[in-house]
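I have been asked to look over a protein record a colleague put together. Alongside the sequence sits a line of tokens, each denoting a local backbone shape. Please read both lines and tell me whether the tokens look consistent with the sequence. Take the sequence as given and treat only the tokens as open to question. I have pasted the whole thing underneath without changing anything:
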Amino acid sequence: MENTAIEVRDLVVHRGKKPVLHGFSCAIPAGSVTGLLGPSGSGKTTLMRAIVGVQLVKSGTVTVLGKPAGDKQLRHEMGYLTQAPSVYGDLTVRENARYFAALYGLSHKEADAAIKDVGLEEAKNQLVGDLSGGQHSRASLACAIVSNPKILVLDEPTVGQDPVLRDELWKRFRGFAEAGTTLLVSSHVMDEANRCDRLLLIREGKLIADDTPAAVKASAGTDDLDQAFLNLIRAGETPGETS
């Protein structure tokens, strides 16, 4: 599909004998902010891991920028922020960013720009281990964006952030998208969904909605996204049940 950055086709993932994703399919437009929303345990992180190329899959395909997920040519094209800490606590913010920049063959200039992008300039000389939870997450984000990736996969990036910082981060996400980056942002907080261009609503490994926030609310007959999610489930969990 033209202008599609990520395409998932009939993806099936099992953990042990338990199915986590059930024939999941979606297409994520290039240069957009797509929200992946659903309750904890619904399969959001598993889908993100499959897109990044670090998840063992049973069947189906994941294509990123026209290449199979995990292709070595995508390493410099993707940034991935996990829920678990992905930076070194015994290094400063700047040392972490410069280390990750060096892995991509980049200079201190790109590392320092990433720190500025996430609003951590004043804390750049602090040890990451001494940072608050919200600052720690932003230090990880700086390392994820240091290579100026074309695809940015963010797993619950606003957890632990206060409302002001959450708003700042979303402004930065929007800025990345306007510059041409494709963002996939997971959350279980429905009020963040209105900040996205498109939504993927997932429950128990099945896609129950794939549309703009306005269209999702209209199809569910409500202006409240929390209620829209409930209405879609109660309506029969379609189209996911057909997969």
In short: The longest strand covers residues 4-15. Helices lie at 44-52, 93-103, 108-117, 133-145, 163-178, 213-220, 225-234. DSSP finds seven helices and ten strands in the chain. Residues 163-178 form the longest helix (16 residues).
